[in-house]
Prior knowledge:
With 761 residues, the chain is α+β, with helices and mostly antiparallel strands. It contains 15 helices and 32 strands. The chain has three domains: 17-166, Serine Threonine Protein Phosphatase 5, Tetratricopeptide repeat; 173-477, Neuraminidase, CATH 2.120.10; 541-757, no CATH class.
Amino acid sequence: MKSLPCKYAPFQTNTFTFSTKLGLFGLLFIAFSWFPISSQAQSANDKKEEAKLFFANKRYETALSLLQSTRALYRDDKESKFLIALCYYQLNQLDKALAQLNRFSEEERSPYPELWLYYGRIYHARHQFDQASTYYKRYLRTIRPGHNNRQMVIEDIRRCSNGISLQFQEALAIVENLGKSVNTANDEFAPILSPNYNNQLYFSSIRPGNIGVPRKDNGVADERFGNLPSDMYNCRITGGIWGEVQPMHYLLNGPNHEVLLGFNRDGSALYYYKGRNLQNGQIIVDTFKRVEERLVSSTPIPVPMDTYRGDNNPCFYNDTLLIFSSSRAGGYGGSDLYKCSYRRGRWTAPVNLGPDINTPYDETTPFLARDGHTLYYSSNDSKRSIGGLDIFKSFYVEETKRWTLPKNLGMPINSAADDDHFKISGDGFTAFFASARKDGEGLRDIYIGYFQEFLEEMEWPANAFIPPPPTPQPQVPEKRPIVDDPGFQPTSPAIAVPDPSTKVEDSGFGEDFPVNEVVKQPTSPNPSPITVEPTSPYAPIYFTQGEEFTRHTTKREVLDQIAQQMGTQPSLVVVFTVYPDEVTPDGLFGLTKELEIAGDYLSRQGVNSQNIYIRAIGMPKAERSGQCLEISFFDREGQTIPATLPVVGKQLEAVEPTFVTNSQLHYKVQVASAKKSISAPFEQGVDYVMIERQMDFPYYRYTLGVATSYSEASSLRRQLVRKGFNGAYVVPFINGYRLDKKLARKKMGEFQDLRNFLQLR
Length: 761
């Protein structure tokens, strides 16, 4: 049964879930009595009543100013002294709020019971969960069993318990506020990084200077207590600092609410919300037409969302999948997540994501990673969150057709406030989100998170290589136009339509996406093979025909021996490497597919799939001497490898001394990953093209070049970024085995250059 849900209205700009509720609640427990006394006291009392009215309408700064303007209020009036503390709390001035509460509790013999509640709020906001829980419990002891706030506070105690557990979890990222040049004392939310330019960020905000007049939540104009409508903004990063905030074009921002929602896949279309209020409106598309080409009306997107039924916060994936939040009837309670897909020329009906994701609480602001399987979203489920809305992560398992148990991202990504609108940038290391945490500038601020590890779910799936961005920088936002094309159809470039003749495969949870056909391994040329006398079952094998290669990789006695050896040393990794004589996209990919035969067999024999690593390396022409297959080993935990087992490249040193890709420490640059063969990495004129796959990972990774130092590899990465590989990043290898940052830290003492890779000084 859902208790006190945070009704997350479409594009609602609510702040900290329970602090928002207490904006009005702060008045419920305070007496509203008025006594006919002297004219001077009457004036003070009038000011207090006016201050309470401003407080009830969330004008905390004005309320505080009124209460502090008269000595009779801030020194002698019990109710006013307590309201001053509440104003400080709502204005994110926690030190002053705590000091005021301390003075209030010392001076008043019978303080309000809510004193203990706000002590709990302050310590909760500071992530001092033990102290917060103590005060929450003290508050419960002072109120009657049927009090309206009892269940809410019980859930806050539960959130504190979650916080106590999560505060010892290793931090996944470093989090920073974008600062006063972007955030204000008002509300900033819905951040989205430009799909084409890493130095450009878009967001929405309710702040002075927005177009329109102040209105109440129902859309009625109210100059005194209403809020300005939200507008969309753009900012840039210069010299490591985000700033240069400018509103978007006046044809985009108008007198109604406009909220940024996202871009299509190639960045040629912008999606945004437009409505008289934040509950009911339209989702609009802008394809950046010139001003003279525009019509008067805006262009709604033909998607099966109805904001009047509570649909909001859409996430567009691959232009053919839509996930959104909705409070429509028939869900699990509060707001749930739904999905619909574009198939055969039209959108399917929305389908609830089910109880693995949705709860009796609110689930909102979804973001689907590039792999099409990993879902991020916010939820205020008190069984899992530490405050209001927390950001969670879940993975769709195709075999079971179920979502994994949602994982709380922990602190500092999450806080005791509302954290939402989470989106990961294309580099796989950086994320942007909005948060109402009390160390911010105002209601909600924009934050950036720097992840310590590359988020593998941000690797491109099949057919996802993105062409280079246009060379010229775009114009500043206020000069960028809006689409006004009422003739927009689903076949417009803004919504991609899959080619019905293209083969499709499951996207991750029941949706079809176009993919390339699986290529067959071509027959290799027949150079004179180099004969190497085998000295062990793992001796490198030179071959000329694909059949010989297949026959060797499926040699049962060799694979059984590998499985037996790996069973005695669980951290041992087997590395299958093929060096082809011809470096072509189809040839390299075909040989990689052949290697999977051995990998699949070992998996069936009980070998952990994460310990099976396969790769095909395209060597420069001068270094090729016939196709060669090498079986070698690496230990992830640094344990000694038995002398009978070869280390990567050791057996080839005598005949192939120039194989830099087998040296102890080297770096390559990853430019793409896919489930199928792609040709773009082969078209850049960079040697050492490599296709690799770890058997527990569904994608083939494409890396280019080879360098013996991180600085040299970084230089290559910059060159490749200029060629259009925006997501390119440096990867270290030891003896041919890929290192993640955790393993790189373990090897740092042995290889000092890894400090540069880890950016340790």
